[in-house]
Amino acid sequence: MDTIADIQRGMPVYGADGQLLGVVEAVDDDGLRVAGRQIPRSAIARVDDGAIHLHIAGAALQARADTTAPPTTAQSGASGDQIIIPLAEERPVVEQRETDLGEIIILKRIIEEERTVPVTVRREVLEVVRRDANGNEVVEELRETNA
User: Fold this and answer.
1) Is residue 78 within 8 Å of 28, Cβ to Cβ?
2) Cβ contact 84:70 at 8 Å
3) No. of H helices and E strands in the chain?
């Protein structure tokens, strides 16, 4: 026996925590009736070894049964009470906020120093060389320019 169609009266029903909830009292299209409570087919996890195992823990079913008011006509099924399992949804909230992480100070300073730096200086000198007929040379500087 390992399909939901094979469920019969008298089979034991266990919650997800392994707790025995009781035996099947009745089977219909809506689900099972166990210990006076209607369990929907969607709560059945598996059927194996002659037992029915649910997705829901037995303690959760018992706590829900203890806090639930008697069923109204909206909660009543054709065969009696229904188990109503509330769904919860969690959503993270992401937000931005300003946080003081410190500060940065930027200062500009001008520092003057005297340094002796070796520099190559180039100068141009114009020379006029005059030669007479005897081969004598006379050198004359005309002017000096800086480059």
Assistant:
1) yes
2) no
3) 1, 8
Distance (Å, whole) CA 34 – CA 105: 75
Which is more confidently placed, 73 or 36? 36
Per-residue pLDDT, 143:
65
Which pTM was predicted?
Answer: 0.41
Quote the CATH superfamily of domain 4-67.
PRC-barrel domain (2.30.30.240)
Per domain, the residue ranges of the chain are 4-67
- The tokens for 45 are 């996890």
Structure tokens at 35: 């210990």
Q: Which amino acid is at 87?
A: L
Would you call 128 helix, strand, or coil by DSSP?
strand
pLDDT at 73 exceeding the cut of 80:
no
What does the pLDDT read at residue 125? 81
Overall size of the chain counted in residues? 147
Segment 26-36, tens digit of pLDDT: 888 878 888 88
Q: Which residue has the tokens 């025995």?
A: 20
